[in-house]
Amino acid sequence: MLFFTARPRMSWLFLLASQFGEIDRGFDSQCKKKPTYERKQWGELWSSASLTNLAAEAVLQAIALYPMGRVAAFGGPRGFLKVWSAEYATLPSSARLMYAGAMLYLTIGAFCLFSVLVFFGTALFKKDLKGSIMGPSESHTWRECRTCKERHSDDMPAKAELSFFGMIYLPLYTWMASWIFWAGFVKLAGERYCPPNLVAQVAVWSSTSVLTSFFGASG
Questions:
Q1: What is the pTM of this model?
Q2: Alpha helices in the chain (DSSP H)
């Protein structure tokens, strides 16, 4: 069942879109009333939804590291991970895809999880960064005037900026690694692979979501 935590998810797409904020058009007196553009800080507009999605994605990726590690632990002592070994040459293409996807997921997933931990740790101990993520009390904007080329920006700390890159863009690579792994796994399993019952899953998810919303609203 833990294998399903490593299935391809589209969370990286939402996290990537969450860094874009509103663009407000106005006029600046210093630029002779030429149009200027102000963009809210990346986490101000979608901070609540993106951070919730990020926390859920971090938990799922942390769980998925275990079955992927089991796959690597099975193939490592048998020489299946060494592309120059004779044992690797005897593997079918589907098994090679499966082991390649598992190793790619382990490498990138561990770094991605580390980036998330660094980001949240920095957010908890840095008040200025915490304000920009959780909802700043002051207006942090980025402004560029086309004529006088003036910029005013409030940059994030370098550590948080690096971890922000990791947690936003690295899920894209774990998503691709999941596709590689599952393509090899399903092809290798053949008729023995039993896909989940999508109708039953949708019914369970829908009913639990409705009940949760009902009891949450009534409480």
A1: 0.61
A2: 11-17, 47-75, 86-89, 93-125, 127-134, 158-189, 198-218
